[in-house]
Amino acid sequence: MTTHNTKHIFGIALLLALALSGPACAEEAIDITNLAFRTGPYAETGAALANGQRDYFQMLNERDGGVNGIRLSYSECETGFNTDKGVECYDKAKAASIVTQPWSPATTLAILPKAAADKRPLLAAGHGISAMADGTVFGWGFNPPISYWDGASILLKDIADGDLDKLRGKKVALLHLDAPYGEEPIALLKEYADTFGFSLVAVPVGAKEMQSQSPQWRQIKEQGADFVLLWGWGTMNAGALAEAAKVGFPMDRIAGIWWSGNDEDLKAAGDAAKGYRIVSWNMPSREAEAMRDIERYVLKSGKSQVAPEELGGLLYQRGVLASMFVAEVIKAAQLHFDVRLINGEQMRWGLENLSIDEAALASLGMEGMIAPFATSCRDHSGRGGAWMLQWDGARLVKTSDILKADQEMIAPLVEAEAKKFAEAHAPWAMNEGCAAGQSAPTAP
User: Fold this and answer.
1) How far apart are CA 104 and CA 296, in angstroms?
2) For residue 113, is pLDDT > 90?
3) Which of 154, 157, 119, 126 is nearest to 142 (CA)?
4) Rounded to an integer, what distance in angstroms lies between the CA atom of residue 306 and that of residue 355?
5) What pLDDT, in 10s, does the model give residues 357-396?
6) Disulfide: which of 115, 173, 245, 271 matches 225 by Cβ 3.0-4.6 Å?
7) Do residues 433 and 439 lie in contact, with contact meaning Cβ atoms separated by under 8 Å?
């Protein structure tokens, strides 16, 4: 018998032992509060993410009785994508919720110091500041499966056809939302520009300009940009593609981060956006076993807020995967500490030991939905992979195998920016247990 199989069987035995050790009390549940944004300027995006999160937890409760006999009590605190409201929601939920999911870079920045002081784990799945990957500094912050800087690195590789030297002498425009989210890739892109000899032009878009970007695209054209990286959000995405079509900028020379192209954005652009690409850390798979179980246990029983056709949506399934992270972390912590009702420190241990390999994806019924990744005490991102997806006028089509970022370019910047954040928020508690190689709390 292989070592992998031995560990797998041992893990199953532990799961059964936990599940059968005694019936859970009726009130026993693990609380998970999502900082949702079903209202406000980005409501369409927020609703899709929240629906995916909610439905996956609901499916686990209906199909499995939760996780090892403990139900997952999911709730939402509405932020409207407003940072102040996000902080208020955190303060209200922190005592009960096992993890904080801010779903906003600005809110993540505001909450990070509070979460560290309160010792409450913060999960920013595929968002937040990229420096959070440094687990030696951000002991309570996590951003798996990959960071924005990972995404920026992959985008540059894509527009360069895999050879970054091809960008030498070229001009790359970054069309970005004028907000912390949009500014996030600039530091890394400048490093790439200096290293590979291309020019970077940052073109901000204010919140009031998202639907009408004529000045920005005039600047892009006048400066002779060879490529455009789109770092948009909400209605900015459809607005950018519409303006690009008006000025005749080639769609196959525009590539966006994973929030810069969801189903509704691209349907609004239609044929005019043919050739536009995005990098995405999740791959929609309507026929995956996990998605069929959501349909069977949640949709068909009338316990979902979505129509059946929405189950295949890119953002809906991203929400599903974010909830999978939470559930698998809980499961790992339960096994490690031999308890069913885990606490915040045990949740943090689980986030530092989240391993989603091919075997795990197969057992979860999520094969092909996400690239394998694994976090550690020092690496809170996981260094996963992503795919390039291209709009064909009707849907997003996969155009690449799993792509990885260039960590040699990213790691020094992560270390420098993490150190800078800690100094700016001094006195900052470093993850000393990580430095000593022992980040796990003592089991009760």
Assistant:
1) 31
2) yes
3) 126
4) 30
5) 999 999 999 999 999 999 999 999 999 999 999 999 999 9
6) 173
7) yes
